[in-house]
Design goal:
By secondary structure, this protein is an alpha+beta fold. It folds into 2 domains: 122 residues, Glutaredoxin, CATH 3.40.30; 49 residues. The chain contains 7 helices and 4 strands. Strands 2-1-3-4 form a 4-stranded mixed β-sheet, sandwiched between helices. The N and C termini lie far apart (100 Å). The model has no long low-confidence stretch (mean pLDDT 81). One of its GO terms (cellular component) is cytoplasm. It comes from Cyprinus carpio (Common carp). InterPro entries: Glut_rich_SH3-bd (IPR006993), SH3BGR (IPR051033), Thioredoxin-like_sf (IPR036249). This is SH3 domain-binding glutamic acid-rich-like protein.
């Protein structure tokens, strides 16, 4: 399977250039094999891309802008859907690829599989989840300590005020 990224080598839009660089850079960082197909210098590439982007994914003017991403003949999406997949740690799923062992996406898929098979519970599948539970417990203990200290402080403060009040009362009695 080859990922096809349709790009415009001579785009006048800096936004399009940045989006193209983001997609290509991310694919390279993940060591995913892909082919760059230039729609600016190759009319066949441009026509193929325009014809194969699904109608509901085309902008209102009907002309999809690069980058557009395909897995062979299957449309994956544009930059916005790629970015969402990147944020959700689901790029391999977005591209229709099997995530490599040890990746976050592979671990998430494994956890989902365990849930479906009934061999795991949601509480113990994700290290981040158990870490978050421990952090919440620590925060609750810290909050209890803070409330306890606050109570002690106010009791001490009240006691001091009472002593000051009593001293002022005695002082007033002595002066009058």
């Amino acid at each position: 399977m080859v990922i096809k990224v349709f790009l415009a080598s001579s785009s006048g839009s800096t936004a399009i250039k940045k989006k193209q660089q983001d997609v290509v850079g991310f694919l390279e960082a993940l060591k995913i094999d892909y082919a760059q197909l230039d729609i600016a210098s190759n009319e066949d590439n441009r026509m193929w891309m325009r014809e194969n982007v699904p109608g509901e994914k085309k902008p209102t003017n009907g002309i999809p802008l690069p980058p557009q991403i395909f897995n062979e003949e299957m449309y994956c999406g544009d930059y916005d859907t790629f970015f969402e997949a990147k944020e959700d740690n689901s790029v391999y799923e977005f591209l229709g690829l099997t995530p490599p062992p040890g990746s976050k996406e592979a671990q998430q898929a494994e956890n989902v599989q365990k849930l479906h098979n009934g061999s795991g519970t949601e509480e113990h599948l994700d290290d981040d989840t158990t870490r978050n539970v421990a952090e919440e417990e620590e925060q609750e203990e810290g909050e209890e300590d803070r409330v306890r200290l606050k109570s002690i402080f106010f009791c001490h403060l009240r006691s001091n005020f009472n002593n000051i009040g009593f001293s002022l009362y005695i002082l007033q009695e002595d002066l009058c």
